[in-house]
Amino acid sequence: LLRVASLGSRASSPVNSRPSVEDLLSRRKRVLGPALAPLTYERPLYLVRGRGSQMFDEDGAAYLDAYNNVPVVGHCNPHVSDAIADQSRTLNTNTRYLHESVVELAEQLISTMPEQLDTVMFFNSGSEANDIAWRLASSYTGAEGAIVTDFAYHGVTTATIALSPEEWPRDEQPNHVATIAPPDSYRGPRLEDESMARDVAAANIDDALGTLRGRGMRPAAFFADSLFTSDGIFHPPASYLQEVVGRVQAAGGLFVADEVQSGYGRSGTGLWSFAALDVTPDLVTLGKPMGNGHPVAAVITRAHIAEHFASRTELFSTFGGNPVACRAALAVLEVIEEERLQQHAQDVGGYLRSGLERLKERHESIGDVRGAGLLIGVDLVRDRNTREPDPDLARAVMSAMRERRVLVGSTGPHDNVLKIRPPLVLTLSEADVIVDTLDACLSALEPSQGQ
Ligand SMILES: Cc1ncc(COP(=O)(O)O)c(C=O)c1O
Questions:
Q1: Could you tell me whether strands 47-51 and 54-57 are parallel, antiparallel, or unpaired per DSSP bridges?
Q2: Closest Cα to residue 237, out of 372, 333, 438?
């Protein structure tokens, strides 16, 4: 009774009597446990509101969000929020009743895909979509083996953690998964042209297929994020993935294009990042930005793969494809189209990348600037000649930028690559702010690095 009473009084407390940062921190530690308690910054950010590419803290200070890809059409986009609110006031139920929203969304997604990808299933998170993609692939092929990139991340469930070397405990590799090096032209073999990329890809994938063969396994699927976000952000020539996918498919495996990170126009060259590669995936998984923050995810596949699965078992997700989620996802597609955000990602992303490239002339610690559209990696090094990664500097830059109210992340196996991945509504002047802030932070931090 006491608990209910105190919950009630807290729920009705006015917004301006927010808990202090210290109070919230200690309560959070007490109830969230060690797995969920870690926060992004040593001096934690307490954010209360968002709009466009900005978020605001409890004192009303604005932060430029150059990190979050989920709010793809801008934080709290009014068109998406209205769609969610309207539908949640009208009806929200499961997909075992007729409702036009789930059909409209499936039709719209299919219209953006290659012809063969004609069947959509809806879920609630990227992990769930990849988990089901793995079940579909292993059931269809009857094979047990998987191939992923060296530092891939595909989700949090038991099946998808096995597909996520980024999270594997040291020296504990699942026996059914082989890895392939990402197309890292900066530290690995140069992939300057299509034929070089094809040769490197062939050698890499043959190696992974050989590893599975050595364990007595055939490949069920190759999972890849076409922009290799967790591997350190790479944008290889199209022939790289074409060669890998061709060889996996020739060995009987399926290609799962994981668009959870890099989809929804981020690459600038298409709504989906695999589109620039001229390969047709067997399965595509969507999540994160799909509902601009509202949970919704999907697997899109070929009818015969879905039919094979349905002939053996039933598939039902209680919340997957509910009308509120579908209205959110439809509204996101509308905004991307109306505001031409894919083209915008290409234009502003190109502008931002050239601004960051220019910083290389002033800062020895920038080894490489790479990426596509509004997914950009800035590879920080201790020494330009040896290209030794500098994760300490990356960490220091992230927190110095936060103090100057610009949020960026870090990625890659050494955690030394600054990850710049803002909402696609980022403006040119906001791109300037990112470049100027990084410039100022590196100027402040670099001299002390040499001491
Ligand atoms: C490429 C990729 N796939 C899948 C996932 C899992 O998505 P979720 O966290 O929504 O389950 C992520 C999350 O970061 C991701 O980056």
A1: antiparallel
A2: 372
- Ligand 1 pocket, 105 CB below 6 A? no
Q: Which is it for strands 62-65 and 406-407: parallel, antiparallel or unpaired?
A: parallel
168 phi and psi, to 5 degrees? -65, 135
Torsion angle of the four alpha carbons 286, 290, 294, 299, in this order, in degrees rounded to the nearest 10:
-30
Q: How far away, in angstroms, is 137 Cα from ligand 1 center?
A: 18
Q: 126: CA distance to ligand 1 center in Å?
A: 5
Nearest C-alpha neighbor of 241 from the set 107, 147, 177:
147
Q: How many Å apart are CA 239 and CA 317, to the nearest integer?
A: 37
Percent of residues, the chain, with pLDDT higher than 70: 95
pLDDT in tens, 145-191: 999 999 999 999 999 999 999 999 877 899 999 999 999 999 998 88
**Angle (CA) 80 86 90, round 5°:** 140
Rounded-to-5 percentages of helix, strand, coil across the chain: 45, 15, 40
> Which residue CA neighbors atom 16 of ligand 1 most closely?
261
**How many A from CA of 131 to the centre of ligand 1?**
11
Residue 261 CB–ligand 1 contact under 6 Å: yes
Residue 4 has pLDDT above 50, yes or no: no
- Which pLDDT value is given to residue 9? 39
Angle at 112 between CA 111 and CA 116, to 5 degrees: 70
CA 362 to centroid of ligand 1, rounded, Å: 35
> What is the model's pTM?
0.95
Task: Give the three-state DSSP class for 254.
Answer: strand
Rounded CA-CA distance 249/245 in Å is 6
**C-alpha 193 to ligand 1 mean position (Å):** 30
CA of 241 to the centre of ligand 1 (A): 20
CA of 166 to the centre of ligand 1 (A): 12
Best substitution site from 69, 154, 292 to test ligand 1's pocket, by max atoms within 8 Å of Cβ? Answer: 154
Other Cβ atoms less than 10 A from the Cβ of 448: the count is 9
Euclidean distance between CA atoms 227 and 360, whole angstroms: 22
Q: What pairs with residue 286 in β-bridges? A: 298
Predicted local distance difference test score (pLDDT) of residue 373:
98
SS3 call for 166: helix
Q: Please work out whether the CB of residue 154 comes within 6 Å of at least one atom of ligand 1.
A: yes
Q: Is 419's C-beta closer than 6 angstroms to any atom of ligand 1?
A: no
Assign 1 a pLDDT band (cuts: 50, 70, 90): very low
Q: Which atom of ligand 1 is nearest to the CA of 288?
A: 10
Nearest residue by C-alpha to atom 7 in ligand 1: 126
Q: What is the pLDDT of residues 218-231, one digit of tens each?
A: 999 999 999 999 99
